[in-house]
Design a protein that fits this description.
Layout (H helix, E strand, L loop, with lengths): L4 E6 L4 H12 L3 E7 L11 H5 L8 E2 L2 H5 L4 E4 L3 H14 L2 E4 L6 H10 L4 E4 L5 H16 L6 E8 L9 H14 L3 H4 E2 L14 E7 L5 E9 L2 E9 L3 H14 L5 E3 L1 H4 L7
Parallel strand pairs: 1-2, 1-4, 2-3, 4-5, 5-6, 6-12, 7-9, 8-9
Antiparallel strand pairs: 7-10, 10-11
Helix pairs in contact: 1-9, 4-5, 6-7
């Protein structure tokens, strides 16, 4: 389409929100339509450009998402599960694109997002980066090729000390890829905690280890360990803007799609990869 895509950034005063506003201001084909913060936030009324460290954009932060979504083409959402569910309902009502980078969603949140996808174009992923989504495809292939009877799978992740959910959405995305490669349910085979006398490792399980500290943006490793050798597939994020770039790519990709639920594998054309 020739007209710029009008985007709403929710959670606009947060780290990802500010990164998104800055990137939108620098990117052709998209424009900041509105910036939303929580009710009674001290940032309400402030110019979104100034907040993001770029020249004024003439868009003041608002705490009224319903009004913000009117006449918008899409919303980009890196907030909380409870907020995301609310935004999903509004995006469905407005029949617009909803890009969701929120992690920590529970089954009840996912059900409401699925319901919203009957009317909105929803792109949801545990990670918006090209590298992580390519890595998930490679992990699925490796898990399929390396038999469960001889190869154990462990997922190791580290994030900054402010992250509130564990394992990370990316770690779960990679664990799901491994489980799909093994044709098993991650929910039934994952091990999230090891403490005390655990006994020997259960064959076929997928283990998770979570580290938190400092300002680490995101480090992920998936280890395939057998007798005498280990294969490690990893990804390191050094700049938060890579997630914002992926989210913008997802939004513009979904603009002309039918209502439904999509992932970054769809956006990147990787879903056909075995």
């Amino acid at each position: 389409m020739d007209t710029p895509m009008k985007l709403v950034v929710v959670g606009a005063a947060g780290r990802m929100g500010r990164t998104l506003i800055k990137l939108i201001s620098e990117t052709e084909g998209v424009v900041l339509h509105a910036a939303v913060e929580r009710a009674r936030s001290a940032f309400v009324g402030q110019d979104a450009g100034e907040l993001a460290g770029v020249p004024k954009l003439g868009v003041a932060l608002t705490d009224d998402p319903l009004a913000a979504f009117v006449h918008a083409d899409g919303v980009i959402d890196f907030t909380t599960p409870a907020s995301t569910v609310e935004f999903a309902a509004l995006a469905a009502q407005a029949r617009i694109v909803h890009v969701i980078g929120t992690t920590g969603c529970l089954p009840e949140h996912e059900e409401k997002i699925d319901a919203a996808a009957r009317h909105a174009r929803v792109v949801k992923s545990g990670n918006m980066s090209l590298g992580v989504n390519l890595l998930s495809v490679l992990i699925k292939q490796a898990a399929r090729a390396l038999e469960a009877s001889g190869w154990d799978i462990e997922v190791l992740e580290m994030h900054h000390k402010h992250k509130v959910d564990a394992p990370s959405g990316t770690a779960l995305l990679l664990g799901e890829a491994a489980a799909e490669g093994r044709d098993i349910s991650l929910a039934n085979h994952s091990v999230r905690v090891r403490d005390g006398h655990t006994g020997p490792r259960e064959e076929g399980s997928i283990g998770f280890a979570t580290l938190r500290g400092g300002s680490v943006i995101g480090e992920h490793q998936v280890l395939f360990a057998s007798e005498g050798e280990t294969v490690t597939l990893s990804h390191s994020a050094t700049d938060r803007s890579l997630f914002a770039r992926g989210a913008l790519k997802a939004a513009t990709w979904a603009r002309d799609k039918k209502p439904g639920r999509y992932t970054m594998l769809d956006v990147l054309g990787l879903n056909s990869t075995p």
